[in-house]
Write a structure and sequence with these properties.
Layout lengths: L5 H24 L3 H29 L9 H32 L3 H32 L7
């Protein structure tokens, strides 16, 4: 695996996180608490692996510019800005939500999870969208 493979790996890890979040939600709604816990810890692991791979890639490559023009450029930057802001916000929210579960304070865990889950899902899904827009919508025009 080379540096060139990391953006696709990152998108895959984000997609995996998103799928595991949905699975975890379905499992808890079905009352399957242990399976929910495993799915959510797997989502956390997938997101942590994403962050590690993302940092390694950008440490070596730097930033990658989006070269699209017109309306698609505005859409890209709207998605990117909301993604980045929420990615920063979500890290402590995930930590607090996991901590509440670990402490078996499920009433507080549940209340916080209602905020954390959709934000984490948005960050995971938009990570895949950003990858697609950046590396597949305008791949010939990439500028480092």
């Amino acid at each position: 695996m080379s540096l060139r493979d990391l953006p696709a790996l990152n998108a895959g890890l984000n997609a995996t996180s998103a799928a595991l979040l949905v699975l975890g939600f379905v499992l808890i709604k079905a009352g399957r608490q242990k399976a929910h816990q495993r799915a959510m810890l797997a989502a956390l692991t997938s997101s942590a692996l994403f962050l590690t791979s993302y940092l390694v890639y950008h440490w070596h490559v730097g930033s990658v510019r989006f070269t699209g023009t017109g309306a698609v450029r505005s859409v890209y930057f709207f998605i990117l800005i909301t993604h980045v802001v929420l990615a920063v916000v979500i890290v402590p929210l995930i930590g607090a939500t996991v901590l509440r579960a670990y402490q078996r304070r499920f009433d507080r865990h549940r209340r916080l999870a209602w905020i954390t889950l959709p934000l984490w899902g948005y960050v995971s899904v938009t990570g895949v969208v950003i990858y697609w827009m950046l590396y597949h919508l305008h791949p010939q025009g990439l500028v480092k």
